[in-house]
Amino acid sequence: MTTEWFRAAMSSVSVVLTEDRVQQRHAGALKLAGEADRYMVAQLVALGFESQLDSSAESSVRSLIREGDPTFPESGGNAEFKVLSAEALRLLLGGRRQVAKVAALALACSSLQGALDYHRCPGLTNLAVNYLSDRESTTTRIRPFAKLDLSDSQRLLVTQVQAVGNALASSEFSAAQSTLGEASESLETVLHEIETWTGVAASRFQAAQTNFSQAIESVIWMASKSSRQLQKPLREMDASAIAVAIGVDVFGFKKLNLGPPTLHDLVNGAIGSVRASDTLSMSTLRVNEDVHDLLGAHIPTGLAAALTPVLSMFMPDHAPRPVSRGLEEMELTVYDGALQILREIQLTAVLEDAEL
Amino acid sequence: MTELLMAGGESLSIEDSEAITADEDTHVVLLAGPHSCGKTTLIAAIYDMFFDGPVNSYNFAGSRTLPGFERRAFLARTVSDSPAPGAERTSLAEQNRFLHLRVCFGVSGEETVQQAVSPVVESGRERVNPAIEAERESIEEPSREPVVSRLGGNERFRNLLVADWSGEIFERLLNSREYAQTQDVLKACHHFAVLLDCERILDQSDRHKVLAEANVLIRSCLDSGIMKDGISCSVILSKWDLLRPRSAARRFVTEAQSQLENLFASRFGELRVFRTAAVTRSPNPAVPEGFGLRELLRFWVEYDMPLPDVGSSNPSS
After folding, report:
1. How many Å apart are CA B255 and CA A48, to the nearest integer?
2. Which residues 23-62 in chain A show a CB within 8 A of chain B?
3. How many A×B Cβ pairs under 8 Å?
4. Which label site among A6, B34, B75, B212 has the fewest CB atoms less than 10 Å from its CB?
5. Which residues lie closer than 8 Å to B6 by C-beta, 6 or more apart?
6. What ipTM was estimated for this complex?
7. Could you tell me the pTM of the whole model?
């Protein structure tokens, strides 16, 4: 189903738009949203923030689009290409694919948490930020274990074993043999049910244990009011370094699993709401030695550099990137800065194949 | 006179233009006004401005209709010394056809020339704008590394596709609202531009008719229901050099301007009034030749139709 936005956007890149064309192009966007891998998704995001695609990425994306819409050109049609990219990202954020998280992270990072728009797609970056917030508020919720109920299977198995016994007792060997086969299948079913249940239980137990240990770590970290990485009290650091230290530390014990306590709770707990509202500027961030020490292990490379406005400023080449344009003039609160740094580190990790 | 309108030459058809709009940011401009109001002269003058180099920091970056521009500009130039400047009339055969202008902005001149290596620049079959020719000659071999696609990067190019309705179409639109619905170019435009001829406004007996015609035209087009949402409207007061300050005609224009704004501003994404003098009949320091055209061009190049918010965008089918 197409939206008003998609029609308006298609209309803006057409002279006279036909219904056939809308449907064909939308089929291309659907295919892209359904099958793009995390690297393609990241490229689609970068495209909306004035980064250039490399030719091989463009070729892969075009091939996917053309599987859904054979009329899409093999070259050219670049304005339409961008519309389809935005639509594919929108579709991804509304779907259930795991790579939606990559789309959301990349959009949130590149847009400075929704402050900037994706090319000609107002609202897309806010969708991404909301997607992450929604996911983070539910990510540590563990669904209850369903009780393992084998009564029907057990009853059937007992009946079948008894039938085998009766047949053997009356020397009806062929009947016994056939019933034994059925009993064997029932036994297999019971064992399979036990195995499935155990697997689910184990993974949920593991998730619960992870959440529990992360929660404990969070509380300890919050109470320590210190940077783990630098082994230094946060009160001795300036606003820039605090933001970075929080982002780096929280990633250290929560990775991509950012559930309750929320980052907001953690920041307020560690430094108080007053300091969380202190502002930091990018120019001070760049020259702070603590910041350089903290970010040493998280400097992005390759595609991640095009999507991480803050971290990419610390790359050795110092080359200005489109995604960092205007950042120098911005002032962020410590909380905003910590969130931005955390998301950028998370994104860099997923583009280096971290588990989603 | 029978004319051959060839794609890549005189003008582009809607089909030819689709490839441009699908590829790069493109704004379709529709110029409407009665015959002799100065539509063609206006287009020719905008093209001519690039003779002196960048306009509003826009560099010329190609055109698929250079011969079409050249013919209009030539005619405008050859008659400019005559007492009544003007250009060739737009014929009915040219309806739903476009002149194409591609500009590049926000980059250095050197970069512009590199980027102007564009498939849209046709080889010159006629004399062409020397500024354009100079750019062509200085084009160097494009770098072979690294391999990046044309996709993305700073959005530095903007195409304008300009259609001018002939006086005949204008007359038909005044007499039949339904006629507007048959006009594909009306569906396509991002900028709807209406010209009000100040020469006619000078004439006390004609000036109210000028305003009434503009009213009917805009209303007919809006009521046709086929225009895109959020397009802009440029009300262009052509031949502005003819109006003297503090004259009755000037006062009429001020009233006409506010009337049009009151009636129609809310129905467009943006409505702006431009006072222009593409060519002038006598030197006038207050209204030099090309007066108002830079502002008009900037509006056409930089105004983007707003798109609905994708987060609150409702399903439409």
Report:
1. 44
2. 46-47, 50-55, 57-58
3. 130
4. B212
5. none
6. 0.80
7. 0.82
